[in-house]
From TrEMBL:
Domain of life from the UniProt record: Eukaryota
Subcellular location: Golgi apparatus membrane
Topology in the lipid bilayer: Single-pass type II membrane protein
Listed name of the protein: Galactose-3-O-sulfotransferase 3-like
Keywords: Glycoprotein, Golgi apparatus, Membrane, Signal-anchor, Transferase, Transmembrane, Transmembrane helix
Source organism of this protein record: Limulus polyphemus (Atlantic horseshoe crab)
Amino acid sequence: MPPDTVYVTIVREPSAHFESIYNYYELRRRFKMSLSEFSLINKMHLLRKSFGFRVRNPQLYDLGVDGKYSQNKSFFENEVKNIDQIFDLVMITDMMSESIVLLKELMCWQLRDVTTFKRNSRIDIWRENELSVKVKEGIKAWNVGDTILYDYFREKLVKRITEFGQERMKREVNLLEQLNKQLFEECVLKVQVSRELPKPFKHSSTKVLGFRLKPERETNLTCLQMAAVPSSYVKHLREKQYEWIRNKKGRNPI
């Protein structure tokens, strides 16, 4: 990447993230127990077995740290500090509006450039909305690396918001939410199971919701891009990159 590349990522509260993974990937079938049961049992015996990256500290794994088997908090703390050296901004999902405002500021964009729809929300039968404090603590203790990651960058984000200005942030968040609502009402006819929608709005999973556009907005580029599933939009971005490479290098991308 060019030397002036800006690196951004997103971190989610560990118990909410693990709940999503446990239910979306149906890990209860593997462990033959509910998430609540899994969170409360002694899982140290699992550290002597082979298991996939989603089962423990999955967010660290996505950021290049294999912390599936480690119990060493110092190891995780050092790795988080290394991650901090890479990224210009680490956004937090439960402070998403504030994170987006800071992203806008970092990139010298306008609020209209960062309007969003909430994507890939799971259908209610595939989520557990009410986890007890004890269950949440059990999840965070198991995902100790992700917990250290989240706590570190949430604290850092709060400091950045303070530096940005609390009242200024409140104004910008309110305006951003108004713009999001305005665009949603302009584009979307209804929210429904994504699998029932046509491409490029159709997700391969039956567990998530998607957006059906209003008939008069089906050819509107902004509405199309806002409602497209991630895989469709990534394909669109890749095609743009390939075209740039062909024009710049005079050859097809490898």
